[in-house]
UniProtKB/TrEMBL annotation:
Keywords linked to the UniProt accession: Heme biosynthesis, Lyase, Magnesium, Metal-binding, Porphyrin biosynthesis
NCBIfam families linked to this entry: PRK09283.1
Known role: Catalyzes an early step in the biosynthesis of tetrapyrroles. Binds two molecules of 5-aminolevulinate per subunit, each at a distinct site, and catalyzes their condensation to form porphobilinogen.
Residues annotated as binding Mg(2+): 236
Binding site for 5-aminolevulinate 2: 277, 316
InterPro entries: ALAD (IPR001731), ALAD_AS (IPR030656), Aldolase_TIM (IPR013785)
Identification of the protein by name: Delta-aminolevulinic acid dehydratase
Active site (record annotation): 199 (schiff-base intermediate with substrate), 251 (schiff-base intermediate with substrate)
EC number: 4.2.1.24
Subunit composition and interactions: Homooctamer.
Gene3D superfamilies: Aldolase class I (3.20.20.70)
Family, per entry: Belongs to the ALAD family.
Length: 326
């Protein structure tokens, strides 16, 4: 008596035993690197709220993408930052084949071929002068169905430019089905859709809005989800799968691991989770102050997202983490 027969610590007693019984894998191929490319800049421009992340020029983007591929990263997610004077109410620079996002996609498609998966953010907010993810009606509200038509044009332009995967992130109803139909009609049946299915109206996107020079005044509560609603998130996931999503995503990641787990349980397609800019900024800021161990915190956060059930994790640390993992 007094000595436990059950000793879970036995399996923790050596590195070899711990390695043998580790439940979760974290591998470079499971990571996707989000990248920003800006029009009209000569040098990469640092993003102060995301130390180590920059707005790329077309050339520096090619170098960063090649480095990610070298590290074995599973995919790249590209965001375009147009010049201020190219923004308009309809975000028309997004669908323009000569627009920054599409020319950069074509650059990477030419450089990398099928060496990694090339993804594009399919949304209007980077390109609109009002900063909303859609076009506005006469009353100034985001017009769902008119916006979806714009998304179809964006998606087709991105597929044309060489994206393997388009990623509608605006949370408009019916966006996935409409994009599927539009891609098929334009001869892009092989282009996949990664749906931002459960995207919450989060304060943790703050640094991203610096990163893309967002013009947003107001908020996105009429289209992004209430952080309180997990059941509604599952409805969004189910609808997107029904409309033809090839992968579904939950975003942000760390505050929503319950939703990631529930989505993974329900989903018949692979599930992604997006470790967003504010999550990056929090760990970076604490590490800069010496308050936490940066590498350990990054790997622990990524492992947690995988443990919750995400097959794929979008993270600004993708290349760096991939190098740590080999
Ligand atoms: C919208 C979009 C956003 C992010 C990815 N796609 C911003 C928003 O919804 O306001 C945020 C990503 C991040 O914070 O890292 N195009």
């Amino acid at each position: 008596m007094g000595y436990p027969r059950q000793r879970p610590r036995r399996l923790r007693s050596s590195p070899a035993l711990r390695r043998l019984v580790s439940e979760i894998t974290l591998q470079p191929r499971q990571l996707v690197l989000p990248l920003f490319v800006a029009d009209g800049i000569d040098e990469p421009r640092p993003i102060p709220s995301m130390p180590g992340v920059v707005q790329h020029t077309r050339d520096s983007l090619r170098a960063a993408a090649a480095d990610a591929v070298r590290a074995g990263v599973g995919g790249l997610m590209l965001f375009g930052v147009p010049r201020e004077e190219d923004k308009d109410a309809d975000g028309s620079a997004g669908a323009d084949p000569a627009g920054i996002l599409n020319v950069a996609l074509a650059d990477l498609a030419a450089d990398l071929g099928d060496a990694t998966v090339l993804m594009a953010d399919t949304c209007l907010d980077e390109f609109t002068d009002h900063g909303h993810c859609g076009v506005l009606d006469a009353a100034g509200r985001v017009d769902n169905d008119a916006t979806v038509e714009h998304y179809v044009r964006l998606a087709v332009a991105q597929a044309q430019a060489g994206a393997h995967v388009v990623s509608p992130s605006g949370m408009m109803d019916g966006q996935v089905g409409a994009i599927r139909d539009g891609l098929d009609a334009a001869g892009h049946a092989d282009t996949a859709i990664l749906a931002y299915a459960a995207k919450f109206a989060s304060a943790f996107y703050g640094p991203f809005r610096d990163a893309v020079g967002s013009s947003l005044v107001g908020d996105r509560h009429s289209y992004q989800q209430d952080p309180a609603n997990a059941r509604e998130a599952l409805r969004e996931v189910a609808l997107d799968i029904d409309e033809g999503a090839d992968l579904v995503m939950v975003k942000p990641a760390l505050g929503y691991l319950d939703v990631v787990a529930a989505a993974a349980e329900l989903s018949t397609v692979p599930v992604a989770a997006y470790q967003v800019s504010g999550e990056y900024a929090m760990i970076s800021a604490a590490a800069e102050r010496g308050w936490i161990d940066r590498q350990a915190a990054v790997l622990e956060s990524l492992t947690s997202i995988r443990r919750a059930g995400a097959d794929v994790v979008l993270t600004y640390w993708a290349t760096e983490a991939a190098d740590w993992l080999v």
